Amino acid sequence: MSKDSKNDTDIEYDNNDPTPHEALGTITDHNDVFGEISEDGPNYRNVGWLGTVALMMKTQIGLGVLSMPLVFATVGLVPGNILLVAMAGITTWSDYMVGIIKLRHPDVYGIDDVGRILFGRIGYELFGAAYAIYFTFVAGSAMLSISISLNALSTHAICTAGFVAIAAVVGFMFASIRTLDRIGFLAWIGALSIIIAVFVVTIAVGLQSRPSEAPQSGHWESDYKLFNTPTFTEAISAVSTLVFTYAGTPAFFNIVAEMRQPLMYNRSLVICQVTVTAVYIIVGTIVYYFCGSYVASPALGSAGDTVKKVSYGIALPGLIVSCILFIHLSAKHVFVRILRGSDYLTANSIIHWATWLSSTFGITTIAYIIASAIPVFSSLVSLIGAFLGTFLTFQPYAGMWLYDNWKGSRTLRWQFGVVWSIIILLLGTFLMVGGTYGSVVGIRDSFVKSGGSSPWSCADNSNST
């Protein structure tokens, strides 16, 4: 038995015969997921708690905050804030469970491993496919947001499909960085740029006489509503967008797996969730209060062309980092599944590099096709959040709580945990089914009204409402 002081748990493995790393004298660590982490290969356990904060925030703050004022416009200011805080609380519990699951099951790398624990091989494949598809779609949505930004900055200088292609090339280049600790610095830049950009718009809409989408002549005052009366389709689509804004949860497995000290995970989580929720509340409330029903989507277009260009210029690094991070997460998921259990996972070799670059290139290509074929910002956000985002953010964590605690002492706390887990299972299923229906209906109505956008469209998408 060998005890590794650098891990949080005791690891047992057969050391009768040296592995290739040990034979070379380069082994530095042994991990349940990555195996032998050596000095001559990538270090997949090197993300600090501050880097974890940045990565967590960047999975949350991005496209979602740009849609928050429109959510408030749909349901009203008071219900919007109540729903936002409720969603923050529920998803924070799911995020907390990620850390608990990782400590109890150190061999868990991603949500697919949770599926394996709960449902065996079928669950492993189902959850793994859902994760890969979800973040590939999110990467495509990030590429689309970059094209919106470039259109706004250049006043639609070239075909939108060309801007999406540029986003794909840049995303592939930087997503091919192999470890999350090296992307952590980019994540800080990305998160801060998005926050600064949305606050620029927030201040601008408060200082101007009327939003850019409002009538520009005659008397005008904001038509914001404390309570609105949306249809079921409108309301459930708004809730689905809220789910999407907090649906970075499944990626937290991959982030904590690369932390140097997983016991610091909760510290990073609290800072992330408090910051993200505060930004959402402030931006959503102020922008909707001053713009009313004339808020643009994405919200960066609400304060006129000049402010739109300034804010998109500031936000562009953040949008690019979102694209990079989501391509990386999807590709890393595929990469680890292919090479897990072999020395090729952590040792530099032709097979290692060929597998890694093939993973990032494949995910980038699929995401590019998605972004080009479905260039509708708000509909794409709500559909992703409703179907895959909800499934990966609610049900698995309730299932894992029941799995790990079902044979525990029948105390009052245990009974509360059972009831809470069942509520999360039911709520997640309702939101997934209802939200998907609402999103599909919303996309259909949009196409009936406007004809929609054609695949690989050249049309300017920087001022969608």
TrEMBL record:
Record bears the keyword NADP: no
PANTHER family: AMINO ACID TRANSPORTER, AMINO ACID TRANSPORTER (EUROFUNG)
Keywords, comma-separated and alphabetical: Membrane, Transmembrane, Transmembrane helix
Species this chain originates from: Penicillium olsonii
A GO CC term assigned to this protein in UniProt: membrane
Region (Disordered): 1-22
Amino acid transporter transmembrane domain boundaries: 46-440
Family statement: Belongs to the amino acid/polyamine transporter 2 family.
Membrane topology classification: Multi-pass membrane protein
Annotated localization: Membrane
Molecular function as annotated in GO: L-amino acid transmembrane transporter activity
Keyword Transferase found: no
Residue stretches spanning the membrane: 70-94, 126-148, 154-174, 186-207, 235-257, 269-290, 310-329, 350-370, 376-394, 414-437
Protein name, per record: Amino acid transporter transmembrane domain-containing protein
InterPro entries tied to this protein: AA_transpt_TM (IPR013057)
Primary localization: membrane
Pfam entry (one): Aa_trans
